[in-house]
Amino acid sequence: MNLLHGAEYWAVSAALRLGPQDGLLEIGCGSGYFLRKYGATTAAIAGLDHSPDMVDLAIRRNRKRVAADECDIRHGDAAALPWENNSFTAVAAIATFLFWPEPLQALQEIHRVLRPGGRVAIGLGWNADDGLDHAAHVKKYAIRLYSGRRMEQLLTEAGFENISIHYFKGFMEPKGMVAAAAKPGVAP
């Protein structure tokens, strides 16, 4: 999966512009690869996944940061994030948004846990703008495809500003999408 989503990881990381002052949350963290590689220079990392097995794997992959109390990986649902308000400066979601049953509620939760001025970047390797026929994927995986316009609408409705839609080319992703936005306010 890491090889398959390499271009998407890079594009999401570039949209977030992560630095040493950041607290990064990845929703749908899977094995914890993105957190370890792209969150390596951040102050803290956190992850959420719906699979207990993936949570265990992500904790093992990031065990040094867990031991240093710089990593918090939990089992849960994107529509009910188990963190306090204003907990993070950056949130990433890679190849998972299209599976979320309550996308608006999840975006509102992301907004809630971001600090003022915090950023979100959502990678959508498969999307309604890529020109591919995803009918089999939609049926097989019960996913929803989003256009850039629909992502702008959802992010706006959830309270975000400075919304941008970027496209990238990756393995089996001729026109992958990253939807990025910020929570209103000035970062501390």
Describe it.
With 188 residues, the protein is an alpha/beta fold. It has one domain (6-182): Rossmann fold (3-Layer(aba) Sandwich). The protein is 32% helix and 29% strand. The chain has helices spanning 6-16, 33-38, 52-61, 63-67, 103-113, 135-141, 148-157; strands spanning 23-27, 44-49, 71-75, 88-94, 114-124, 161-170, 173-182. Strands 3-2-1-4-5-7-6 form a seven-stranded mixed β-sheet. Strand 6 (161-170) and strand 7 form a beta hairpin. The longest helix is centred in the N-terminal third of the chain and has 11 residues, at 6-16. The protein is globular and about 45 Å long. The model has no long low-confidence stretch (mean pLDDT 95).
In sequence order, what are the helices and strands, one letter per element?
HEHEHHEEHEHHEE
Rounded to an integer, what's the Rg over CA atoms?
A: 15 Å
Task: Order the strands across the largest sheet as they lie in space.
Answer: 3-2-1-4-5-7-6
Shape: globular
Low-confidence stretches: none
Question: What is the distance, rounded to the nearest whole angstrom, between the alpha carbons of the first and last residues?
Answer: 35 Å
**Main sheet attributes: strand count, strand direction, barrel closure:** 7 strands, mixed
Q: Please provide the count of β strands.
A: 7
At CATH's second level, what is the architecture?
Answer: 3-Layer(aba) Sandwich
Could you tell me the mean pLDDT?
95
CATH superfamily: Vaccinia Virus protein VP39
- The SS-based structural class is alpha/beta
Strand percentage, roughly? 25-35%
Total number of helical segments?
Answer: 7
| CATH C-level | Alpha Beta
**Count of the domains:** 1
Tell me the CATH topology.
Rossmann fold
